Structure formats: structure tokens, C-alpha cells
């Protein structure tokens, strides 16, 4: 079986990516990150406080919250507020872990950076777009701290970006959209840093199982996509 | 005491208003409504369901949710969950009541229109901007129902718009920004329809009390502001 | 259309009002406030604590809670306890704001006065009866603090009282009972102080809209009702 | 050690008991039940519904809710919400079980009687006063169902009443007030029916332990108190 | 009517009792307590903290939590986690009170002992098995504190054990299993200490009422069962 | 750096594994699964119900709950209630997904299998032990359905087992214990089926990043461990 993607997209082709830095001005850093039809507003806010387990250590922290706005899907996505779904919690923990990997928390000092990723429109890939966009908001917030003289040296280590890969029958596809994602047999999310080293790998057989060689090829695809995203991130930050 | 407004704004002058219809495409109707630095994403989604008290009546319903995103204020506005604050509940009930006043719920049929007003950036006037923008999202959603043949006649009665007025000492000011709002002695929110009839009046003395003549003059200011907003709404809907 | 009120009550006539001060003895101040069939137990308790935002300022606070007991309505009003309804929150915020307007919070010192308004029987007007009765409980609590030597001067500024007005078709009616309230087109709640200055105005068109002249006449009715309530409050406090 | 009770009350003497039937009119049955300074408003409301485990059986149910109003104690009793304390749940389960023992649930038919016991003032004995007063509210509600022709025969079996007994050192005391209760070594609550048969016995050593002979004497005291309460109940119901 | 018990058990005969001390090693004390088919894992953990009302007094505390695992009953017992049922709260309060009666809380010092009773399999008598097993876990934890030199003298006063008794028609039966328990007319739980003095008595007529002589005979049965359980406890602790 | 493991365990050596099938009898299937000091009680219960999204499809479902008992860790693990931690939710979603991969849900018919994994003692590897043990409980429950004639053919496809691998500096270690796990730089959890095909791969750099070759070697280690666990599972099921 060969898989025809919308708009004749090739299996190893990303959707169009667009970043609008400074989309809002009240947060320390913000970006509207768009990947195809997926739109995520990422903001970074820095507060002079640390979680209890870091008090007195001089180290800082980064934490993330992820939500989907009700209007993000045609059928109205109900707000989660009595409790968070497992999916939401998994995603925001992943965003936080991934972005912490880009930071020297000692160099940050006793501050917490809050990354908020609010999905305005969802067409799959919201968690990976949140990571890639979240890094831009983070870098803009760090820039502001440096400009304000609150930090002397940047605590940023290396950029971080993420992408999804999926298998539909025998087809391995980069950067699934919603229609593809909902029929995928295997779902892979990969986070890498600016050296293309791995930060996180999550692969799940939604249907059946997968082999070691398939895993290898999916990682190859992810690496190609992340290479492109890192370049787009850098361009957006230079222009901002 | 005479009050100098930022940017030499006159006491009876609105901040610049901007509406971006179709900001997202997944909702039935959407608009990014901006009033000065205040940015609210309003979406309207229509579902074929009604609340229990309307079942079997053939009538429809409109309900609203209002939230402020964490990045909307410099100090990070914590998401409300587990329970909503009284302020949030008051605001979303006000938005819902005001927009229902623009609808013939029998002509809507057994549907519910969900208006979601998510504040991306907050510089006061978020509830009134949500009402004014919410009407645009609502009108776009109705247009889509008409175009899809799901409705034969529009259930829209008259447009609805809202504005705030405040008193700082003896100065009565239209459309307060955050800095003005936080020092106001009296806080007034007024909702009117396209005939400039009153839908809702809420006036609170935050400090001291106010007289009947002051109330009169604040209503005059509100009427002038709403006249301008109704024109901007109409222009945005024509262009969309 | 002319509206016939139960018991031949005139449009501008209040229901019989009755206050039983010291209904319970454990609270600092208490009153059973009855307006027609509506019965509200208002208590005031003073604790030597202030909310976090007032710590170290020397100023005090007043806060209110409002609840309807299950037996207050024939169909059993379910207790709110997992979360408060928007209506309940609006009401208790209104009671708190209104009664704070009667207090010099600096003169109160670092104390919090808790006003609890528990509706034993509900026949409309429960929020306004809570405000009017709440002032009596508050004044009795202040008297007790003065008698105990905990305060040298009374922090009370002016009494506060509240009443509802409604429009049913063209009829404007003072102090609606439940049957009237449930058919009203416009619902107005007005809070005034002892000088008949406005503290709060809340007017909502439940059905249609209302004009500026109607608003004027409803405020006139409210002022007449509040004048009578202020006299009854004063009499109850003198006798207590 | 000999224990001097306030007002020279004898060890086997109840506090003054007072019942005000029909305290509110909206519930099917209501009574303000006072035992010394303890005041409990008991209401009974009947709804045509049964809990799921009784659906289709033709049998009815009785359930109880118990709450203490904030003004019931000098230090302000915080409202329980989000979760009920274990103490509150134990008490309302006890009230429900005890009053169900007075009812033939088959003769009641597919209805639920809701007993609400709201403590307006607390001076110990609130759970036993709730049971004794709850029976009066229940009997008044049944009378109203009979008068309205909704029941042909009364489902009431026998009246039910309750009292507390305590041990302070070697003194066994009937009907403790708050000051006595807070120093008691053993706390006993006894529920009996009109034949003085036992419905419920709950005895707890708060401090140390107690012997079988002590238990016997506490049951004797309880029986004397309940005999008196049953007479007062009957008188109140005759007069109502 | 004569009641035939499973396995020809006599009315005054306990089910087989088995204690496996040190079932887990991470807790300070642990035991798998089995009574017939009922299996409860009891653990005791000691932390250097006290509840707020004991701060600064030098006294310690003991508190208990009780839960039934989902697999404990054939129909799957849903975990309680949004709120605890009244039954669960009653049981864990009873376990806590009963075990505190075995401790000199001053001699314990500023520590809290947490008793966790997790029911792995439920065949009635879970609360009494939790108390009897809980005492073993408690005694093992105290032994460990003594061995570690954290306590010089044991704060244990007397052992505590508990058993249930029930009435089915005229038959009084010791230590009911689930099938018996679900048809019992009267349900009695009795807690005694090593001197066979009473700590707690809870008797409930689930159906009808009971007389004073019946109460006496049920207490006799309970005393016989508890005598046996105290011996089994002592043997397990000697062997551990 | 070379890493010395407790008890001279080799880097590619599992801890001792022990399965006690039928540990409780009330559940359809149960096993006490022990891996080193980690002890997990896994039960499987089958109910004739399906979640709403499967109603009318004839297909069944499997879902899992995971909890750690308070006594499982020396410092007392507080029960999660009101809301589950993100970690707990991730784990129980992983257990559910992994075990569903071993089932033909159509062949199961309209039933839900509930897997409950309650950790009695935690020494790392609780999620993987829950999966490996959960499969045994599942297989025993299926056996019981077959024996009872409720299923004609087994819906089991292939067994499923899981293991953790970690990197500490340059050392790659199979099946970490708690002390190792808390210092690991990379944490890997791998789930495979009886054909050693991949079901789930989750790898996280807790500190730094990891390379593709490291990922390969960790998967090799995991495969060796899972091979051994599949054999132990089969032996336990044969003996049960």
C-alpha cells in the first residue's frame, strides 16, 4: 500500500512552519508557532521563586503547562479543570523535561521559567510544536533577562526541537496531520538538541507491534525533520 | 483634579479597536478582538445539543466561557481549575446573558452555541471586549449555518456591544486601561444593543459612593463608545 | 396590562419587614431578617486575622458567605459543596462589597468580620434581605466589640440597605416576591447608604431590553424602598 | 470527685427542651428543636424519586444531611465543602439510619424523604437533637402527605428519640452540654424507639476504658432521658 | 430458626486467624492479617512530625487510613479518591481511636504513627481485623524504635483487639462472614483492651430493634472472641 | 567509571523474579509479582460492561489502575486522591496500552478487564513489574472465563513483558533498583511481546542526552531481560 498525503506531501516532508515572535507583549517571551494548521501560542514568564525542593540551592527551574482551547477542534474540546487528563499531564511533563534539557539550571539562578503552551488550533503535532515553539519563547525570555541585566551570562545550552513520525501500514511518514495521526499504527515522538543527540524517544504501537529496523528508519526521518526545525527556530530568533 | 490619560487620550475617547475575523478555522466562527493592548480570542462553536431544561422545547441556547491565559499578565495569571473564581463566573455569565439578548432562541432551533473568550493579553476591558468580539464570532457562526443550509433564517435579532466607564475622583473616563482601572472609584460596565437600548448595567462604587447625576453622565459616555463599537463590528462583518 | 400583586400590594409597596436581633447568642451579632416569606439568618463573627493581602497594614476586612438551606424551597435546594454556583458567588461578593462600604476598614484594625447569610426560607429578595440584615448583624457585632473595650471608636460609617425592583411588561414593581420575580423582564438590585447615595446598581434585561427613562423610574422606586428599610434597621438596632 | 453541673442540674436531668413546629412553611415539615442552648432547624422534604438501588421495588427511602452553620460556634465553624469531615458523615448516617427505623419504607411508596438538620447554635448534643427533632419534621411531613391524599395510611411505625450520656471521672451524666462534653472520658449516644427498645448504641472511651457495669448505668440514664423526650415530641405534634 | 454456619462453625466460634509479621520490609512494622478469607495488609510508619494541634506539646499521635483494594471483592470495589465514603471514614476513625487507646502518647514523643490498613480480600470483619492486625504492626514499629534507640521505654499500654457479633433473627453469632453479615438484623462491633475493658461499642439495628438482654449476650460473645484474638496477637509478636 | 551493583549483580543481570499466582481468590486472576524487593499485587477482574465509545461494537476493553500503597516506601507514600499525579497517570496508561496489545479485543466480546496493580513495596521497576505481572493476572482471568464457558476461544494473542534499562555515566545496566534508578542519566522502559517485537519504547535523558548507538545497546539489554521474564511468566502460568 502506498499512502497519498494531502497536497502531495512527500513521506519525509514537513508541513509549512511559521513562527511569529512577540505575538503578545506582556509575557517575557512569546511566539505563535504554526505547523500546518496547528497553531500554538507559547509564552515564557520568569518569576523569582523556585519549587520547595530547590529552595536554598541557588538553582532554578522550568515548568510547562499545556492546554487545548475549546475552539481548537471542530467538536469543541471541553476545558479540563476538575482534573487534567492523563494525556495532558503526559504532554506537559514532556514539554518541561525537554526544555529543561536546553538550560543550565544553576546558571539560571533561583528563578522559575513558566512555559505555557496554549493550542489555538489542533491538527496533530501539538506537543512537538509546543516544544519547538516553547524553545523560542524561552530564548526570548532569556534575552530579555540579559538585556535587563538580571543575568550576566545566558543559561541556554543548546536549542531543542521535536517532531512526530508515524507508521501507517508499511509507510513511514514524517510530521503527521490529524487525519494521518488518527489512523497510524505506530506513533513516535522524538526530541533532539542542536547536536542532534537524543533527549527523548517515545514510541507506541497503537496497533500490532514494530521491529527494530522500523524504529531505526523512524529515527532517521525524525532527525531530518528536526534539522529543518532547528534552522527555522534560529532564523526566527535572529529576526526577532 | 484633572486626569491625564496615556497618549493624550480624551476622557470620551476609546482605545484603538481591531478585529481579525477567521483567526482560526476550526471553530464555526472566530475573531481576534483587540482593544488597545487587550487581546481576546473569541470562538463560536455550534453543537446539536441543548441543556436539560430545554430538551423537547425546540429552543436553542447560547453559553459562554471566559478564561485568562497565564501569559496574559506580566506576573503570570494562574489557570483556574478545580474551581472558578467568583470574578470569572460573573464575567462568563454576563457574556452569556448579553449575547443571548442578540438571539431569537426559538429560531435557532435545538442547538447550543458555545462562545469561548480566551484572553491572550489583558489590559482591562476584557469582559466588554469579549462581549463585543463574541458577537462577531456568533454572527460568523450563524453565517456558516445559513450557508450550510442548516438554518433558513438568521436567528440574530440585533447586534450587542459593551464598554466600560469609570470615575477617578471627579473625572469620568471611557474605556479604562489597566492602570486607570486599578485606581477607579466607580466601575461601570454597560451592554447595549444596536438600538442603543440597555441590556445590562453594572455599577459598583469601589471606594465611597456615587450620585444619580454621575450615573447619568457615565451612561452618556458608554452610549458614545458603544455607538463606535457597533460601527466597527459591522465593518468587520462586512469585510469577513 | 395592569399587574395585580398578591394581597393587593401597591407597585411601590414593600412586603412586611421584620428583624429579630440576637436570634442566636454564640455569634458576635445575629438577626433573623424576614421580608415577606423570605427568612435569612445573618450572623457576624469577628476573628483576629486578616487575609494575606492586608497583613502588616493594620487594616481590617469584611467578607460574606451566602447559602440557601435545602429546606428553603419546596423542591429542596441541593447544598452546593463541590463547587459554588456562579449565582451564589455573585451574591456573596455583592453582600461583601456592599457591607464593606459601611465600614472604615482602617478603624476596624487587623480583624476580619465574617458575615454569614443563611437563607432559611426563600421567596425572592434573598440577596437584598441579606445585605439589609447583614448590616444589623454587623452593627451588633461592632457594639459588642465597643462594649468589650476591643474598639474605642466605631468603624461604622453609614448604614447600608438594599432592595430589588422589577419590570413586568410595563409595570415597574418594588420588592418582587418569587412568583413576580420569575416572570420579570428586567431585574434590578440597588444598594444605597444612609445618605441615599448609590453603592451598587445591577440591572439586567432578562427578556428584551430597557430604556434610560425606565431605568430612572426603577431607581426612584428603589430609593423609596431603601428609605423605609433604613428606618426599620435603625428601629431594630435601637430596641436590641 | 463530685461534678457540679451548671444551674445545679442533677446528673440525671435533661436540659430544657423546646420544639417550634412549622418554623418554616416551604418544607413539608419543619421544626426548630432546642435543647438547652443547642438550636437545630430540622426540615423534611418529600420528593417522588428513589435512589438507584430501590428503583422498581416500590419501596421508599429516607436520607439525612447534617451541617453546622458558621455562626453556630463563637470561633466560626468553617463550612465544609469539597469534602465532608468524617464527623459530619458519621452524624448524618446515624440520623438517617435512626429515622429509617421509624418508617415502614414499603408503606411510604416510591418516595424519598430528605431530612435536613442545620445546627443554628451548638452547645453539644447536636446529633441527638437532630434525631429527636428530625422525627417531628418527619411526622409533620407524613401528616401533610396524608392530608393531601398522597398516602392513605401512615408509614410511621414508632417514634424515635436520642440522647447522650457521658462519664467524667466516676460521674455519669445525662445530656452533656459543650463544657461537659469536652472533658468527658466516655461518650455515649443512644437511640431508642417508642417502646424503649434499642436502635443504636455508640459508646467510645475518649480516655481510658469503661467496664460492663458502667455501660449498664449509662443505658439506664439514657432510657430515662429518652422517655422524657418521647413525651415532649408527642406533645409538640399534638399541638402543631 | 436455627442458623447453620458454613463449615459447621459454632455460633461462638471464630474463623481461623493467621498473622504474617514482616510481610513487607520497608515499613517500620507490617503484618498480613487474615481472618477466614479476609486479608488485610497492615503497616505502621513513624514520622517525626505531629498534627498542628499537638505542636509544641511534646506529645505524639497515631492516625489510621483504611482502604479496600479494587480486587478485594468479586465485583471490583471502585477506588475512592474524589471523596471518601462515609463508611470508609467511619472505619478509619474507629481504627485510629482504638489504637490510640493502646498508646501513651506522651511517652511516644513528638512523632506520628501512621497505620495503613489495606484490604486485599474482603469477607466481612475488615474493620475489626484492621484493628487487631494494626496493633501488631504498631507493636513491631515500636520494637524497631526501641532497638534503634529512638525510644527508651515503650509507649505501649495494653494490647487492643476487636471483633464483630451479629444477630440473625434470634441467633447471635460471633465473627460474621460476608454472607452472614449481609443478612444480619443487628450488627455489633466491639473493641477491648488486654484487660477486657471496653474501648468502643457500636451496635446498630439494621432491621427492627434489639433489647437490653440481647445486648448483654452479644457482649459476652465478643469478649470470648477477643480473648482468643489477644492470645494469637501475643503469639505472633513473640515469634516475629 | 565502572559501576559496582549490590550483590555483585552483573550489568546484564536481572534481580530475582518470583510470581505467586492466586494470591487472592476473589478476583478473576491474581498474582503477587516480586522483582527483587519490589512487590506488586496484580489482579484482573472482568465485568460485563464496556466504555461508552465501544457500546454496540461487540468489542471489549482492558484498562489498568496503578497505585503505590503508603507502606511501600520507608517515608510513607501519601495516597493520591482528589487528583492523580502525572507519574501515576502515565504509568497506568502505559500498563493498559501494553496489556491491550496482548489481547484480541473483538474475541474478548463486550467485557472490560480491569487490571489493578497495587505496589506493596517499591524498589524501582514497579511499572515494568506491573506489566509483566499484569499479564499473568490477565491470563488467569481468561483461563477462568474459558473454564466457566463464558468464552469459547482465548482472546490472548501473545504474552507481553517489560523491563527497565538505565545509563549511569557510561555504564548501561539492566533492571535498575531504587538506588541505581535515582542516579541514572538515562532511563529506558521497554515493552515487548512473545516474539520480541516492540510494543513500547520510552527513553528519557534525565541528565544530558544520549546517542543512537547507546539507544541500540540499551534495546539489546532490554531484549535479554524480557526473554528471561517471558520464560518465568510461562512457568508460573503452567504451574498455577
UniProtKB/TrEMBL annotation, chains A, B, C, D, E, F:
- GO MF term set: 3'-5'-RNA exonuclease activity; tRNA binding; tRNA nucleotidyltransferase activity
E.C. numbers: 2.7.7.56
- Write out the catalysed reaction: tRNA(n+1) + phosphate = tRNA(n) + a ribonucleoside 5'-diphosphate
Q: Does the keyword Nucleotidyltransferase apply?
A: yes
Q: Which UniProt keywords apply?
A: Nucleotidyltransferase, RNA-binding, rRNA processing, Transferase, tRNA processing, tRNA-binding
Coiled-coil residues are none
- State the Gene Ontology BP annotations: rRNA 3'-end processing; rRNA catabolic process; tRNA processing
Exoribonuclease phosphorolytic domain segment(s): 13-141, 159-224
Output the InterPro entries linked to this UniProt entry.
ExoRNase_PH_dom1 (IPR001247), ExoRNase_PH_dom2 (IPR015847), ExoRNase_PH_dom2_sf (IPR036345), PNPase/RNase_PH_dom_sf (IPR027408), Ribosomal_Su5_D2-typ_SF (IPR020568), RNase_PH (IPR050080), RNase_PH_bac-type (IPR002381), RNase_PH_CS (IPR018336)
Which residues of this UniProt protein bind phosphate?
Answer: 87, 125-127
Q: What class of enzyme is it?
A: transferase
| Complex formation | Homohexameric ring arranged as a trimer of dimers.
Q: Which family does it belong to?
A: Belongs to the RNase PH family.
Q: What's this protein's function?
A: Phosphorolytic 3'-5' exoribonuclease that plays an important role in tRNA 3'-end maturation. Removes nucleotide residues following the 3'-CCA terminus of tRNAs; can also add nucleotides to the ends of RNA molecules by using nucleoside diphosphates as substrates, but this may not be physiologically important. Probably plays a role in initiation of 16S rRNA degradation (leading to ribosome degradation) during starvation.
The protein's name in its UniProt record: Ribonuclease PH
Lineage of origin: Bacteria, Bacillati, Cyanobacteriota, Cyanophyceae, Oscillatoriophycideae
